[in-house]
Structure formats: C-alpha cells, structure tokens
Amino acid sequence: MISSLLLWFMLHPFHVGLTDINYNSDSESYQVSLKLFTDDLEKGLEEFSDLSIDLFDSSSTDLSDSLISVYVDQHFSISAADRVDLKYIGSEREYDVTWIYLESDKTQMREEIHVQNEILMSVFSDQSHIVHFKYGNENQSGLISSEKTIAIFQKSP
Fold first, then answer.
1. Residue 82, domain member (yes or no)
2. Is 97 helix (H, G, I), strand (E, B) or coil?
3. Could you tell me which of 52, 130, 140, 149 has the fewest CB atoms within 10 Å of its CB?
4. How far is CA 91 from CA 49, 65, 71, in A?
C-alpha cells in the first residue's frame, strides 16, 4: 500500500512555488524571492513567449532574464493601497529550482498588503504558492491557488 502511494507521488508531479516577501524598514522597500521548479518555469515561459527556453543555457541569459521579468510583472503583484512597482533584480538556478528576485523602490508599509500570484496558473491547474510575509518581528503565511490568487496580510497594531 505504501509503495503504491509512493509510486503515485513519484509519477504525479506537484506544482508549488514559494514566495518570500520581506519589508525592509531600513530601506523602506519590499524584497521578494520567488522559488519555482525550473522545468515548470521553462514551460510557462515557453507558453508565454512561443519560444524554446533552456534556463541553464548561459548563452541565452539576457533573453531568459527579459522574459522572466516581463512574465513575472504580468503575473505577480503586491498592492498596498496602490500597486507597488517591483523591479526585477535577477534570477539564479539551484539544481531543479529557480530563484527570482524583485525589489521595490522606497515605499511606505501600509496596514494591509495584497499579494497576487498567478505565476504558472495558466499552465498547471493545480499550481499553488506558499507565501511568507515578514515585517520586523512579524511573520505571516498564506496559500495562493487557482481558486484564490490573492493573499492578504495585515500589519499588527
């Protein structure tokens, strides 16, 4: 029974991403790290651009970075009263995952922020994202899925 269950998990891929958001009160900026499975991201970028993508191909780093930047801008946002302008810092590969880094300009921390993450949701119907939000000593977490693409975090009084 256990071996059947293990085999099912091995044959049935899961699609999950991790989003870490830190509000840095010294620089008054949001710092975002997105962790995605590289093969899933490649598939998402291929569907988005109609190009063949190999994120491990160092000769196409500029194209990959450009595509990732535009794709993430269209599928991920933070809103605190208004949409927070996030700048693409870069990405790096680590075995089977890709880390994507974003940062905002100087912006004030609001009482409530909305995080919308639709990355890879049009590619995988079971895609979900675990979101961690850190502000000072506060840590909050939420789960985003195709049924609920926004997580709301509130600053403690």
1. yes
2. strand
3. 52
4. 18, 7, 13
Domain of 51, in residue numbers? 14-154
**Residue 130 CB coordination number (10 Å):** 16
CB neighbour class for 119 (10 Å; exposed up to 12, middle 13-18, buried from 19): buried
CA angle 148, 141, 94 (to 5 degrees): 95
Give the dihedral sign, CA 73/74/77/79. positive
Instruction: State residue 110's pLDDT score.
Output: 87
Structure token digits, residue 86:
């996030």
Question: pLDDT digits over 83-115, tens only?
Answer: 999 999 999 998 889 999 999 999 988 889 999
In a domain, 9, yes or no: no
Name 19's bridge partners.
Answer: 34, 131
Give me the number of domains the chain comprises.
1
Strands (E), the chain: 16-24, 29-37, 76-80, 82-83, 86-94, 97-104, 112-117, 128-135, 138-145, 150-154
Say whether pLDDT at 80 is over 50.
Answer: yes
